[in-house]
Amino acid sequence: MSQLSSTQSEATRRELRNRHGESIRRVRAAAEQADPIKAATEALEQTNNDFRFVSHGSEAVTDARVLSEAALLGRQEAVKLSGASFEFSSGSLKEALKSTFMIAPVTGGSSGIETSQPHNKRSKRSLAAASTSNAVSYDWDALGVLACQYLLPVPPLRVLLGPLAMDTSKKVIERQTNQRKNYKAIQPKTMNDFATEDRETTSNRVETVLDCLLDHLEEIGEDDCDLFHFAFNPKSFSQTIENIFDVSFLINEGRCGLFYDRHNLPRIRSLDPDDETKGKLPGSGSRQQVIFSVNQQEWQDIVEAFKISKSVIPNRPS
After folding, report:
1. Contact 283, 265 (CB under 8 A)
2. Quick one: 89 exposed, middle or buried, by C-beta within 10 A (0-12, 13-18, 19+)?
3. Residues with Cβ within 8 Å of residue 268, at least 6 apart in sequence
């Protein structure tokens, strides 16, 4: 392009700009013509041929204006096609068919065919009907021939799933002799009784809690201890609930007793089920159950109020 711009004269550039201006006027005037797209296409082809001579900015601007005007015209035509102004007129189609395929009655020596179709394309049956009748008729045969060009013909016979004739191979059935095999006796798998296992697990855990209580009472040298310091786990709310559940089993079996001290705080003590004098101790007597509820917030408040930092019952792994 640099070599072209150095040798291009001002007169050539002026002529190129004039042609671009003429193309712009042709595109703008095409909107009022019957076939605007054809006129715009001719202008674009001329501009495309002149593009190889564009070497300066001013000519490039005028070239771009031609493309912009053509794009605007195309958009307007697209809007017309998609709008309500583009409608199918059945009356116009009817008049066009009448003017094309109507056969007038024969008068005198005239042919009697007042259509735009050539005489040699008319069927003999239509011409005979026009010559013997004075009424206006239509060349239906010619209309049928014309319509057949745009309708789907009879589809050819195609094989969709392979050839029509296929040799089906017969399956050869091999009869095998039944051979007796020596199978080892397999012992059926015994199903575990999960209910029994749960009871055994609970019983073992209750015994562990009782051992912890006895060791703790021996360690502190007293007959009873605070229920909160014994059963509450400061690190786990769920294990605290399990510990209270296990203590309730011990109380129900008469192996532990629950009573309240002078501050109205719950305390527990160990009881011997075979001891005849246990009824004289606080928290003993007949089997009793004390029901109380504790939520997570209350558990947290009790741990903070009594400064429980370590659980007497060991912390179980999750």
Report:
1. no
2. exposed
3. 213, 224, 225, 227, 230, 247, 251, 256, 257, 258, 283
Distance between CA atoms of residues 176 and 180, nearest Å = 12
Domain 201-305 has what CATH class?
Answer: mainly alpha
The structure tokens listed for 71 are: 């794009």
- For 165-190, write each residue's pLDDT tens digit: 666 777 766 655 555 555 556 666 65
Contacts of 55 (CB under 8 A, 6+ apart): 1, 4, 5, 8
Angle value at C-alpha 152, between 149 and 155, nearest 5 degrees? 130
48-76 pLDDT, tens digit each: 888 877 878 888 888 888 888 888 888 88
Domain range list for the chain: 2-82, 90-148, 201-305
Q: What is the reported pTM? A: 0.38
* DSSP state string for the chain: -HHHHHH--HHHHHHHHHHHHHHHHHHHHHTTSS-HHHHHHHHHHHHHHHGGG--SHHHHHHHHHHHHHHHHHHHHHHHHHHSTT----HHHHHHHHHHHHEEPPP-TTS----SSS-GGGS-HHHHHHHHH--S-EE-HHHHHHHHHTTS--PPP---SSS-S---PPPP-----------PPP-PPPPPP-HHHHHHHHHHHHHHHHHHHHHHHHHHHT-SEEEHHHHH--TT-HHHHHHHHHHHHHHHHTTSEEEEE-TTS-EEEEE--TT-TTGGGSTT-SS---------HHHHHHHHHHTT--S-SSPPPP-
Strands 266-270 and 256-260, sheet pairing: antiparallel
